[in-house]
Automatic annotation (TrEMBL):
<feature type="binding site">
    <location>
        <position position="169"/>
    </location>
    <ligand>
        <name>ATP</name>
    </ligand>
</feature>
<feature type="binding site">
    <location>
        <begin position="119"/>
        <end position="124"/>
    </location>
    <ligand>
        <name>ATP</name>
    </ligand>
</feature>
<feature type="binding site">
    <location>
        <position position="90"/>
    </location>
    <ligand>
        <name>ATP</name>
    </ligand>
</feature>
<keyword id="KW-0963">Cytoplasm</keyword>
<comment type="function">
    <text>Molecular chaperone. Has ATPase activity.</text>
</comment>
<dbReference type="GO" id="GO:0016887">
    <property type="term" value="F:ATP hydrolysis activity"/>
</dbReference>
<dbReference type="Pfam" id="PF00183">
    <property type="entry name" value="HSP90"/>
</dbReference>
<keyword id="KW-0346">Stress response</keyword>
<comment type="subunit">
    <text>Homodimer.</text>
</comment>
<comment type="similarity">
    <text>Belongs to the heat shock protein 90 family.</text>
</comment>
<feature type="binding site">
    <location>
        <position position="31"/>
    </location>
    <ligand>
        <name>ATP</name>
    </ligand>
</feature>
<dbReference type="GO" id="GO:0005737">
    <property type="term" value="C:cytoplasm"/>
</dbReference>
<protein>
    <recommendedName>
        <fullName>Chaperone protein HtpG</fullName>
    </recommendedName>
</protein>
<dbReference type="InterPro" id="IPR020568">
    <property type="entry name" value="Ribosomal_Su5_D2-typ_SF"/>
</dbReference>
<dbReference type="InterPro" id="IPR001404">
    <property type="entry name" value="Hsp90_fam"/>
</dbReference>
<feature type="binding site">
    <location>
        <position position="77"/>
    </location>
    <ligand>
        <name>ATP</name>
    </ligand>
</feature>
<dbReference type="InterPro" id="IPR020575">
    <property type="entry name" value="Hsp90_N"/>
</dbReference>
Amino acid sequence: MGKHQFQTEIGQLLKLMTHSLYSNKEIFLRELVSNASDAIDKFNYLRLTEEQFKEEEWSGKIFIKLDKEDNSLTIGDNGIGMNEEDLMENLGTIAKSGTKAFMENLTGDAKKDSNLIGQFGVGFYSVFMVAEHVDVISKKAGEEQAYKFSTDGTGEYEVTPVTKESHGTVIYMKLKDDEKEFLDKWRVEEVVKKYSNHIAYPIVLNYSDVEYEGEGDERKEKRVQKSEQINEATALWTLPKSELKKEDYVEFYKTISHDSEEPLLYLHNKVEGANEFTTLFYIPRTAPMDMYRADYQPGVKLYVKRVFITDDEKELLPPYLRFVRGIIDSEDLPLNVSREILQENRILANIKQTSVKRILNAVKKLEGEDFDRFVSQYNRVIKEGIYTDYTNKETLLEIVRYKSSSQEGLVSFEDYISRGDSEKKEIYYIIGEDEKVLRNSPLLEAYKKANIEVLIMDDQEVDSIVTPMIGTYKEWTLKDITTIEAPDSKTEEEKKEIEEEFKPLVEKIKKTLGDEIKEVKISTRLTESPSCVLKDASDPMAGMAAMFAQMGQ
Ligand code: ADP
Ligand code: MG
């Protein structure tokens, strides 16, 4: 209790936020509503799993109160609440290691930077864009004492015990002088509708209004307090597709993803039959910032009969689809399913399988710029999929793209075989770190001369692990040109002659280089360059294997 310093990073973050997100400050409402909804979700789950809350008569609600006289906006919920420790940990420190990355990724471009907010769990701090003082009054479900967390956002905060009747959180914000627009009923309603229309709980707006009594000279002004539910409060995914427009899907996406861009793709399905479930998936237009971090936040939430179960389960979809955002709502899982047993659950395994197929098929159907955008953001994780998801390997091989020795831009295996030699059925590739070096490789000379296309794979870390295990694509065999004979090679006899002729030279090179090399060979692969250095094809690439392990694959 008493006064505390904010973590230094928070001070920095607050400064950045007030400056860089200035033009987009309305998102503070989205962040607070989303936190309130999460807190209600969590209490809802407690009611299912813990005896002591089962009897409580309760339904989740959020309220927003506007007070023009006091210059304040208050938002409250009857969710799980926070105790003293929670307040200090959740609001006084930045627990997630991603925040550092957030800071590093700030661009100074308000629109881009606001996209980052929320991805790293810095949502609450957005209140300081509009508030000069904030009190968070909270009581945790099942505990006696309530606490108040107060701050003006400049480096210090104070926690004191207070009284509060029931569990939940109330956030009182004294608005800055030039942020009075957020005391206006219409403005607040507009913002809430824009971002939070399909939050599953009612949001009730309390505001004061002026009414008139009497006629003519007798007419008198009267202030009255009114309240009104301002959102739909139906979980969007439960509505029939026919009732939903693209805008509805996009807005809902923005509330669950904190992204301000439109998604690249959305996919809403209701599956009926023995195993009933609804899924709503989105693919972000820009890959999530934490996609290559081991502590990435999974993007899919699990619900059972519209009750939130978890948003922290990395196995709802395979790890290579960790960029997908959305919801799975099952009708058949038991409501009190424990998070621990989810992993071995057969119902869930079935949902996962169906979902992966749906998502990949939808990606395959993307066209033109949208498909190119997908490849620019996710080609690398698709390669991870090729390595880890044997069941969907064929589809993934249709999606993945590579550079080519003979074509502009990126090509697919399908493109390649449509141009290739259909007698031989071979797909040639070369792997290395640098595109330029690969394109100038002496090994390519013979292929260029013979007009044979070679795939240029310059994501060495990934390609060197993934490509060798592809094996074949539609009966075409993949061949690493550093390990095979070049096209148009000489007959066996001619080769023997050449080998004899150059034997003394080979011996001399071997002697000179000694342990630095494994082998010196006469080759017919080169046409213009006299010699080249090759890597050993069986050399393991430890780096990539480590990366897969880190992502839990
Ligand atoms: P995020 O929501 O991404 O975790 P926030 O900065 O929005 O990040 O919130 C930080 C944490 O504070 C939340 O994870 C939650 O534990 C807690 N919190 C915030 N608002 C509430 C609330 N209304 N009720 C209960 N807990 C809350
Ligand atoms: Mg939040």
